[in-house]
Recover the amino acids of this structure.
């Protein structure tokens, strides 16, 4: 029971993280020129198949 | 009295503490139902227990079945919440199409996200959501923060983008908010974030493009329509795409996220999942895929932790 309660605290009782941006809105908008938008890297996450990881082990 | 009703009444009697024992009835060979025999006294006690208020307060059974998930993570279940969205005078909406990976006409509140993280420029997707500040955009946690690690240093939302056109201009972020489970723990179960953006000459984001309603702590296994701007091959990131289908649990049980049939690629991350079409309640975002599972996009379960991040951003 104790570990379960701890897990609950860890997963549900934490305040979210907040970050204030230092750059002004004008600076940010000026930075992302058409060229930079075109060359921006598509962000993605692909997790490894755990069954494959086990095979490799 | 049907068996289902009888079982419910028995449960009520037991919960109410008015029945101490229940008698098991023998099953016939053809009867596979687990049947209990209830005395008239027990039934009457159960009838008395289920007052209109108790019926109203009763939790949906799906919140009990969720506990059977294969994941080791604690289920993040709270009170079901739905906050209605709003339309913009200029908003253009499209009906959802229950087919996957089709090009959509732009939707005013859905857009591309450009940001700088670790010195590199990236592209994701996002959606304007209803908010007290009229300036909140939902996206994936990994579209604002390394998870775990640093936050983005520049972050810009371009609603209704299409082929280089930005009919509503661009909105730069002033604040980024994400669950600490993502920013410090890198737990992909919580891969959602919210950005607060600046207005345009005094006109708020929501006034310009509208804002989707949001829903938290909903049932699992619902049917979603996901939107995004996939930019990795075979897509080019120039048009809005959608997928739709019923959600299913992570087959590996590694996360609490759910997957839907979808071919969208990198760049669609952070795009909204709606209950219904693009005018429905948002209830997740495009998050990740598995290398070994083709054509499935996973999105985090929007429970209390993500609702807390939303509340922090929108106020």
């Amino acid at each position: 029971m104790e570990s379960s309660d701890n897990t609950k605290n860890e997963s549900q009782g934490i305040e979210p993280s907040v970050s204030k941006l230092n750059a002004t809105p004008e600076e940010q908008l000026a930075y992302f020129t058409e060229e930079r938008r075109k060359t921006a890297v598509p962000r993605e996450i692909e997790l490894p198949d755990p069954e494959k990881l086990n095979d490799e082990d | 009295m049907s068996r289902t009703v009888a079982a419910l009444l028995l449960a009520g009697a037991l919960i109410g503490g008015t029945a101490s024992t229940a008698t098991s009835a023998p099953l016939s060979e053809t009867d596979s139902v687990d049947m209990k025999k209830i005395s008239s006294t027990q039934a009457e006690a159960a009838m008395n227990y289920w007052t209109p208020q108790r019926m109203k307060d009763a939790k949906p059974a799906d919140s009990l079945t969720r506990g059977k998930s294969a994941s080791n993570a604690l289920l993040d279940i709270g009170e079901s919440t739905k906050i209605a969205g709003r339309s913009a005078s200029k908003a253009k909406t499209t009906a959802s199409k229950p087919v996957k990976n089709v090009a959509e006409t732009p939707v005013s509140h859905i857009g591309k996200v450009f940001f700088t993280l670790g010195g590199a420029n990236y592209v994701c997707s996002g959606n304007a959501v209803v908010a007290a500040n009229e300036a909140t955009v939902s996206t994936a946690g990994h579209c604002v923060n390394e998870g775990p690690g640093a936050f983005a240093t520049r972050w810009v939302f371009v609603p209704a983008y299409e082929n280089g056109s930005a009919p509503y201009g661009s909105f730069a972020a002033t604040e980024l908010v994400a669950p600490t489970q993502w920013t410090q723990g890198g737990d992909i179960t919580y891969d959602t974030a919210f950005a607060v953006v600046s207005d345009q000459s005094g006109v708020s984001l929501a006034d310009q493009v509208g804002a989707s309603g949001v829903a938290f702590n909903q049932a699992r296994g619902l049917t979603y329509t996901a939107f995004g701007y996939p930019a990795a091959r075979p897509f080019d990131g120039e048009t809005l795409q959608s997928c739709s289908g019923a959600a299913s649990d992570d087959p590996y049980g590694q996360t609490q996220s759910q997957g839907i049939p979808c071919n969208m690629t990198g760049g669609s991350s952070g795009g909204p999942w709606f209950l219904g079409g693009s005018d429905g309640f948002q209830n997740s975002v495009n998050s990740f895929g598995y290398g070994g599972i083709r054509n499935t996009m996973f999105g985090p379960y929007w429970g209390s932790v993500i609702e807390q991040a939303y509340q922090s951003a929108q106020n």
Summary: Chain B touches chain A through 68 residues (CB under 8 Å). Residues 81-314 of chain B form a domain with the Thrombin, subunit H fold (CATH 2.40.10.10). The longest strand of chain B covers residues 120-129. The radius of gyration of chain B is 23 Å.
